[in-house]
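Quick board copy: two proteins, each given as sequence then tokens.
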Amino acid sequence: MQRGSGTYRRAVTSTHTGRWVRLDGTTNTRDLGGLTTTDGGCTAAGRVLRSDNLQTLSERDVRRLVQEIGLREVIDLRTTAEILLEGRSPLRDVPEVTHRHFTLLPERGHHTDVFAVEEDEPLDLPEGWVESLLPRQSAPHDRGEPPAVRSYLGYLADRADAVVGALRALAQPGTGATVVHCAAGKDRTGVVVALALSVAGVSHDDIVQDYAMTADVIEALVAKLAASPTYAEDMDQRDIASHTPRADTMDRVLTLLGERFGGPAGWLEAHGFGPEDQARLRARLRD
């Protein structure tokens, strides 16, 4: 196994295909259950899902998520602009489901409750807010890293409060399932999920492998996003290969967290998500 060198090689290939949750309105939904941990345990099925956006869920999807899977919480990592442009998810009309918002990108304006904002008429949005939809970000000392690595490190540097907030919400005890999502379910969702899986005790290699699974559905995912005016321009500007998640990317992010903080747990503790928080999150994710 080679890490952090620009070429990531796995000794064993396994995509855990049984973890996919096939829905009419999403292309990248999967269960985080069924992953082995370094101490011989396993992550629990039906507790946490990761997904692309949920605006196009069908009535059948909603029934399956709420009645069969037991969904009770949505953690939305998109910007206020994305949420307002895309419109309400059908899950917003389900009283049993709580929605929480933690944007991982810098935003214009000062909205603290996007789900309240979207009900206001007229919308009080600052001029130029649409241009802040998908900003690229990087710290000066990370400019030598590949673009995706820079973006992921940017989430951690610029929106550590939101990352920790999302994980703290995810760690709350409950009997139902939670879905964590952004637009594609690969970048912002990938970083939050990687930290959560690390806390649960999933190995570096399996975290990388989970992240890279989105490559299996990337063509359908890009087509879905390209059909939305919100994301069409961003999809059209780059080819499929540039949208495809590379194992090298998450491998490098985890390697850098190891070098700088002793690992994801060290980064979390340095940003206020200490041992008690991590214990609650571990209990939520594991059998």
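And the next:
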Amino acid sequence: MDAYLDNSATTRCLECVTEKMVHVMRTDYGNPSSLHKKGVEAEHYIKEAKAFFAENLKVQEKELYFTSGGTESNNLAVMGAALANQRAGKHLITTAIEHPSVLNVMKYLETCGFRVTYLPVDKNGIVSLDALRDAVSQETILLSVMYVNNEIGSVQPIKEIAQTVRMQNPRVLFHVDAIQAYGKYRIYPKKEGIDLLSVSGHKIHGPKGIGLLYVSEKAKIRPILFGGEQQKGIRSGTENVPGTAGIAEAAKECYRDLEEKTDRMYRLKEKLITGAERLDGVTVNGRTGRDSAPHIVSLSFAGVRSEVLLHALEEKGIYVSAGSACSSNKPSVSQTLQGIGLEKGLLGSTLRFSLSFETTEEEIAYCLEGLKEVLPMLRKYVRR
């Protein structure tokens, strides 16, 4: 059998999603900017998706923009907000364990004259509110923090972070990368003090190439793409109608019986962690209970290189990840693992196991059995 445990990298598209997308591509294929009937039919899917997400997030439809995915949503939020508000100040704040689609934008903005503060995190990947309080100044214009860390599953205290920064400077815009959180938590940006929120379709059993960005009506951002002025000029380009229909369909399914789905993932996560801890030389990184994400487990395996173990598991049909899928093809050491202070010897011996509501008990059991078989064998060949 196979065990697909790399759902934080991407998820399998739901059948209802693919069926809807095929219908749009084959039947309602018009350009939504066209004035004729085919264009109106296509535009209907965009309006329908906006209505769903507005209700789901408790925001206004005019505050929602569809993008090409999580990376573009994060880029548009961070760069767009920085450029639009630089007259008020050029200080930005983020954390040391953000996704590359935020960190690399911050690094670019530093070359443009912005000053960036990278907040440290504790051993569980949680931001210090005291450090945040000290970092905020009257020059600060933007704070960007991920809701759920994509490598170790730490969950940030978003509402408390928003309150802390606003007490220091109420003008600071708060961007939240919710790409690993959306579909696992009920998120209400206005209630939680979030000004900008990023979502990705392929992390929630939707298609690749589609994302969502919430921009509060009070937040000022500049476009980073220029073209035909679609989506009020904030995100130009012909809308991805099949993708938009697909991400909405996927989100509807994720939020149907959400609590039941997350409870089940937490039970499977506990089973995976309990089984892994029985094996020699295994360390669990970050929090493991319900104060962590329901779908992400980070495990370090002493004496075994992560790439070697990954491929040994792959030969058994067990699919996991050596960190973030967006950077795992590079030899660089994980900034998240360094950020939580993981001991040096384990930095290159860590794998991420990530679940979805489709994950089965049989897959977890098969994965544990695979680990039990391959770990002793691989350790035999470690150079001493």
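Board note added afterward: The longest helix spans residues 37-57.
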